[in-house]
Specification:
By secondary structure, this protein is of the alpha+beta class. The protein is built from 19 helices and 19 strands. The strands form 7 sheets. Strands 2, 3, 5, 8 and 9 form a 5-stranded mixed sheet that branches. Strand 10 and strand 11 form a beta hairpin. It starts with a helix and ends in an 11-residue tail after the last helix. The C terminus is likely disordered.
Length: 609
């Protein structure tokens, strides 16, 4: 199914590259003159620091073994020029290697390259570029002609009067036929059979001709299908013998996958994984990118669509208009691992994405706006928090979490079961609560429990009597009282007691309520109504419970954190409205950016100072 979908995609693309060609970072250009009057010009195409390398669509296929074959016209300096490589010389200056092994290897590779290019020239005697290239082969360059900083691994391509020779249709056809003859099996052996992809009888591949490029931790010859060990064989047949794929389908599938991996609009990296997506209709907007960089307007459209679902038979018919495909890939010792594969109708994809953002929505009380977070930011929220550097330690993100969250979004399933307990352990350890962590907490609770749907919402529920949720609200109120009484406090009660309060709230909250009385008296000296209002809200919250719970289970602990953050956001909204009222009474208007800067992302409660 995966190969079939990739072949369909390759056939539908208008910008498909020629068979066995791939975009490659060319570093040097050897430009020949068609008149033969000028000396060959070696042009440096290497990018400046900070710039992207110049990539050119050039011949490429997988090669391995003791004597890997050359590529037509565009290859490394080792093949094109017989460059032995640079080694460290006197005063750490790099010089050409004189090691007999390096020199012998360079001569051998260059001889194979010259033989291939000469063969192409001989088969195209009437082509002006072929004649010019043949003349250059008869006058091989010497090390004196090479730039000092050229190395054997640098890619070199040849042009005539500034035009790449490998772009000629004659070169493309010749290279495709040569690779097909090599990859179809040993000469003399029948490689005809029924292709599992297209269902047609034709020449079958022994190995996929194009390696997969662009995956994290991938090597030079990473294969999508690789059966080269006895444990991998099927019916005692190695490689593609038991997985018949014809030459055309194998080439198209691998080439299409590489094109998608090279296109930033069709792939994203998630740790050691790469997620690639496409649609049956290449012009369809999939909105998949919003998982990595959600735009508020786009997300609002997805969320709003949930409230206006399709109805009747027309909706069922619309589901077949287009299809969405996504595959998650990893690499293990040069073998591609398909970690996830999904194919769904595009309308259903949009519905799942809308649900995804709804389930992780957080509320900014100060600005009265809803916030949505990219997958990478949610994954980062599960990492350890470094208090000294005031940032997350990205190396502590749980393995595969970003890819697992993307999978949950596309499949409409819960995140991994370990996310909620791990997140709670992080919060208890570092006492850091910000909106991305709350979003991940909401997501885990919403998709793993059905008992507390009324609490798994972005905003405060003032009527809930769920013990964990109410205790979290009380903790936020007590902290707000402390901050109001001591605006310059460095260590809050949350910093000191959160670890214990979230597990055993009765002992902590009872003690903190007693400690809040002097704070309320301090507030009353400045504003009696403010102190009275805070005391009444605190009493009302305590009255929601018959008794404070002595211990909270894992799910209740998560609700404690959710209630704590909901109460903070609600208080922030009240503070914002109070400031707006004061401004109107003073005949002033708050600047648009004043409210945005007044509340740090992870410190909403500071508005209560």
């Amino acid at each position: 199914m995966l190969l079939h979908s990739l072949v369909q995609h390759a056939d539908s693309r208008e910008d498909a590259v020629p068979d066995y060609y791939q975009r490659r970072p060319i570093m040097w250009q050897i430009d020949l003159s068609s008149t033969g009057e000028a000396e060959p010009l070696i042009i440096d195409l290497r990018p400046a620091k900070g710039e992207e390398p110049r990539k050119v669509t050039a011949p490429y296929t997988g090669r391995s073994g003791k004597n890997p074959p050359p590529f037509l016209l565009a290859d490394s300096a080792l093949y094109v020029l017989g460059h032995p490589g640079l080694v460290k010389g006197p005063e750490d200056k790099k010089v050409l290697s004189t090691d007999p092994k390096d020199v012998a290897k360079a001569r051998e590779r260059h001889a194979a390259y010259r033989a291939m290019v000469a063969s192409w020239c001989n088969e195209h005697p009437g082509l002006p570029q072929a004649r010019t290239l043949a003349q250059w082969l008869n006058r091989p360059s010497t090390p004196d002609d090479w730039p000092e900083d050229m190395d054997q691994g640098h890619l070199v391509a040849i042009s005539v009067d500034g035009e790449w020779i490998h772009d000629l249709p004659q070169a493309q056809r010749w290279w495709a036929e040569k690779v097909k003859s090599t990859k179809s099996g040993k000469p003399g052996r029948s490689q005809e059979g029924l292709c599992l992809v297209c269902g047609q009888v034709g020449a079958l591949l022994s190995t996929l001709p194009v390696p997969v490029k662009g995956l994290p931790n991938s090597g030079m010859n990473t294969q999508l299908i690789c059966l080269n060990q006895p444990a991998h064989y099927r019916a005692g047949i190695k490689q593609l013998g038991a997985t018949p794929v014809c030459v055309d389908c194998g080439t198209k599938a691998a080439t299409a996958l590489n094109m998608l991996l090279a296109d930033p609009e069709h792939h994203t990296r998630a740790g050691d994984s790469a997620i690639v997506w496409w649609t049956r209709n290449p012009a369809t907007e999939t909105d998949m990118w919003t998982l990595d960089n959600p735009e508020p307007t786009e997300v609002a459209q997805l969320v709003d669509a949930l409230h206006h679902p399709y109805k009747g038979r027309d909706a069922l018919a619309a589901l077949d208009d287009d299809a969405f495909y996504a595959v998650t890939l990893r690499v293990n010792t040069n073998r591609v691992i398909v970690a996830d594969w999904i194919t769904i109708p595009v309308p259903e994809l949009k519905q799942r994405l809308g649900t995804w953002f709804t389930d992780q929505q957080t509320w900014d009380g100060w600005n009265n706006t809803s916030l949505y977070w990219p997958v990478w930011r949610l994954a980062l929220a599960a990492a350890r928090w470094d208090k000294r550097k005031n940032t997350y330690i990205d190396t502590t993100i749980p393995k595969h979490l970003q890819a697992d969250l993307a999978k949950a979004a596309l499949h409409g399933t819960p995140p991994p079961a370990h996310v909620l307990p791990l997140l709670m352990q992080r919060i208890r350890a570092d006492h850091h609560i910000d909106r991305p962590r709350i979003a991940l907490l909401r997501l885990a609770l919403t998709r793993t429990t059905t008992r507390h749907k009324e609490l798994c919402v972005p905003q405060l529920n003032t009527t809930s009597t769920e013990p964990g949720y109410v205790c979290g609200r009380i903790m936020a109120m007590l902290e707000a009282i402390q901050r109001k009484a001591m605006p310059k406090v460095n260590t809050t009660i949350t910093d000191k007691y959160l670890t214990t309060a979230v597990v055993s709230p009765r002992a902590v909250l009872t003690r903190l309520r007693i400690g809040a009385r002097p704070h309320l008296r301090t507030i009353a000296r400045k504003s009696e109504p403010a102190a009275k209002a805070m005391e009444n809200r605190l009493r009302d919250a305590f009255d929601l419970l018959d008794t404070l719970p002595a211990h909270l289970n894992a799910e209740q602990q998560a609700l404690f954190i959710l209630g704590y953050e909901h109460q903070r956001a609600h208080s922030a909204r009240a503070a914002a409205e109070a400031e707006a009222i004061k401004a109107r009474e003073a005949g002033k208007e708050l600047a648009a950016d004043q409210t945005a800067d007044a509340l740090p992302e992870d410190a909403a409660d500071e508005t209560l100072r």
